[in-house]
Structure formats: structure tokens, C-alpha cells
Amino acid sequence: MSITAFEGQYEGEAAVWLKAGRYEAAILPGIGGNLICFRDTENGYRFLHEPGAAEMEAFKASPGIHGIPVLFPPNRYEDGEFPWNGQTYKFPVNEAATGNHLHGFLHTAAWEVEEFGSGKSESFVTVAIKVDETHPSYQYLPFKYTVKLRYTLGEATGLSQQLLVHNDGGELMPCLLAFHTAINAPFAPDSSPQDYRVKATIGERWELSERMLPTGAFQELTADEIALRDEGVNPFFAPMDNHYTAVPQNGRNRMELTDSKSGVTLVYDVGTSYKQWMIWNNGATEGFFCPEPQINLVNAPKVDLPADEIGLFGLKPGEFWEETSRLYVK
């Protein structure tokens, strides 16, 4: 079984490739530290929504719906305002339709490769980004911090992700983060979107305003959303840009996507620190959808609810925050 890690290219962009038996994956350090592909080469499965050659320029301009983009801080902030610890920071309003800031600063930034390599059963890569006064995003969110991502690939264990955030500065910093993970449906070459059923550990659906901001109230789940939580439903049953609480089942916080034709289920186990799910399916357009694990409620700093309930927390100077996730097949 071949197990290796090496520097190469993905559609002309610098990449680090991981291989372990039938699996391969690639990360783009220069474009947001985005894990851009995860494949089963024996069966022809492509689990993540990848940009083709013709899509690369659009992807580089807005790398939000391919691979696993890192959102820090994630999702929308009303009028670009981010109140924190007695100060209000002003983010650029980059979503004209809502007048909000969307998705933070790390998914478009360049990350550095710290190391890559392989062992007896797995290959791995670690990328990091260090933000201080010299980083362009510091003008909007003036905190010093380091974020590290380590991906490990094994034929028996699938693709694991270790995320580490460290406060390098001298004051309490916000720790708000999500992944805009884009999953193919179908991921198998001989299957159709109608062959797919998705389950997710959702709880309640947050009511969102016309500006896609939470009102603080909940809405009753539809029959299809109850199926999403319980037995599974087609990912494109209706247009979804919905925000839910996360309620672990059997101690796990996860999304499961089953291809009924092949009998294969892709599991996305994201860890219980992610207290929210955003699920987006591009207006019910078949092909891919985004089950997005999120630490915090959308617009959390401006929502008058208990901080622990909405995932609004900070790191003291020198503190770490860590979580792991895994994509695997069963």
C-alpha cells in the first residue's frame, strides 16, 4: 500500500498531496489552507466539491463553495459590526444583498506549510497562519493569534482534521470559527442525486430575518427537516440556507450521506464543540451541498442570548482551543 505526502500542483496551484492506499487528498496552502479534494481512487469517488480548470479563477476570487474553507469569524455580521469586550470592530461589508460582512478573513489568506510526511499507515500535512500587526486582517480584528490545521489520511481511518487556535496576544480574543465544507452528491460516478439521503444532528432551526440574521427565536421543523434529523432525506428536498442548533446523537455530532445505489455512507464527524450547523444547498441545485459545522450562532456578538448557548467565547492570553473532525466511509 502506497503511503506518501509530497508537494505538487492542483490545477496549476501549489498543493501538498496526501496518499494512503485507495485514498488521496490535496490542500492548497496559498488559498486559505483549503483541503480541496478527498478521493477514493479505486472506486472513482470524489467526496468534496472540487473546482475544475475552468473554475479556478472564480474559485481564487471567492473560495467559499469548494473543498473545506476555513471561516474565521464565520457567517454574517450585521452592518459589518463586531462588538467584543467593550469595543466594536468594523469589518468590510462584502455581501451587498444583506448589508453584512460574510465569512471572515482566513479562507482567502495564504497559509504556510509547517510540515508534511508519512508513516506506516498514514500521511499528514500541517499548515498554519499567524496573524499579527503585519497581517492585512489585523486592521479589522486586531488580535494576535495562530491557527493550525493538520490533516491526516489513512486507508483505515479516512481523513482526519485537527484544528488548533492559540491566543498569541495579551488580551481576551474571540474564538469564532466554522468550515464551509462542500460535499458532492453524487460523489460516485455512476450514481445520481436521487440516490442520496442525508442525516445530520440538527436540533432547532433558528429564525432568520430578511438579512439572514437570527432573530433569537426558533421555527418549527418541517417534516423534511425532521427526516433530516432522523431517518434521512434527499439533500435537495428544498432550497436550504438554514441555521440549526447542533444536538449530538449517541455522543457524536455528525452528518451522514448515504448513496443507496452503492450502499456507501460518507460520515462527517465534526466534534461536539461545534454547537451550530449551517446547511446550504445552493438553492436546491443538485450536485453538492454544504453541511457547515460552526462554533457560534450567526451574528453572535449582537444577539442577546446566553454566551454559552450561542457559542460566543474567547481565549485568554496564551490559551489554546482545539477540536478534531473526521471524514470516513462506512
Protein architecture, described:
The protein has 330 residues and is mainly β. A hairpin with a 5-residue loop joins strand 3 and strand 4 (34-40). It is built from two helices and 27 strands. The longest helix is centred in the last third of the chain and has 7 residues, at 223-229. The protein has an eight-stranded antiparallel sheet. Strands 17-25-24-21-19-20 form a six-stranded antiparallel sheet, with no helix packed on it.
Give the SSE layout.
Blueprint (H helix, E strand, L loop, with lengths): L2 E8 L2 E8 L2 E6 L5 E7 L4 E2 L9 H6 L8 E2 L4 E3 L2 E4 L2 E4 L9 E3 L9 E7 L3 E10 L13 E10 L3 E10 L5 E2 L3 E2 L3 E3 L10 E5 L1 E7 L5 E6 L3 H7 L11 E6 L7 E6 L4 E6 L6 E5 L6 E8 L19 E2 L4 E10 L1
Antiparallel strand pairs: 1-2, 2-3, 3-4, 4-5, 6-16, 7-10, 8-9, 11-12, 12-13, 13-14, 14-27, 15-26, 17-25, 18-22, 19-20, 19-21, 21-24, 22-23, 23-27, 24-25
